[in-house]
Every structure is written in structure tokens, then in C-alpha cells.
Amino acid sequence: MTTPPGPPEGPGPYQQPDAYQQPAYQQPGYQQPAYSLPNPPGAVAGLVLGIISVVTCGVPTGPFAIWQSRVADRAIKESPAAYGNKGLVTAGLVLGIIGTVLLVLWILYWIFIILLAIGTSSS
Known about the structure:
By secondary structure, the chain is mostly helical. It is built from four helices and no strands. The protein is elongated, with a radius of gyration of 32 Å.
């Protein structure tokens, strides 16, 4: 008597091989750090004022952004282990400088326009 044939060797037409059923590598999930350092005082205010000064080009918030960013930078330098987000402070400082330059250019533009209007009306 002959024995009936066993299951076919390898995967069947509707089966996937074992290598596809369980991946060999699984990417670990995102884990937050155990703690994050707080922002120094004035960092967020400096960034917001810097953004406002660049976007509006006429509202004089650039110097205040520089001031708040320097307060935050001083706090980081005094106790570097207590505060984080140095990039936030730097971004506020840079945006404050750009906003201040735009404000000065805007004031100079209007002074030029006024002087030009006075010069053309007198002749």
C-alpha cells in the first residue's frame, strides 16, 4: 500500500512564506525624553515679537524682541542646566534684528518721501 502524499513543500498558492509573515526588523516606536528643560523667561515673547516685527514691517516690536531675547540668553548663560531651547532664543534675536532693520528702512523711506514732497511743492 502506498502512503498518501503529504502537504506540499514550500508555500502554497495562497500562503506567504514565513519571511513575510513576521518582519525581521521592526522600527522602535517614538519615545519622549524623560524630561525636557523649560524655556527661559522671555524666549517665547522674543520669538513672537520678532515674527510680528518681520511680518508687519512697520510695527516697532523688533527692538522689544531683541530685548526679550537677550534677557532669555542671559538666563541661559547664568544657569545652562536649568533652561533649554537656545534655538528659540536665537530665532527671536535674529527676527528682532531683521524687524528692526526693516523698521529703520521704513522710517527712512517716509522721511525721503516727505522731503521729496516738500522739495517739489516749493519750486
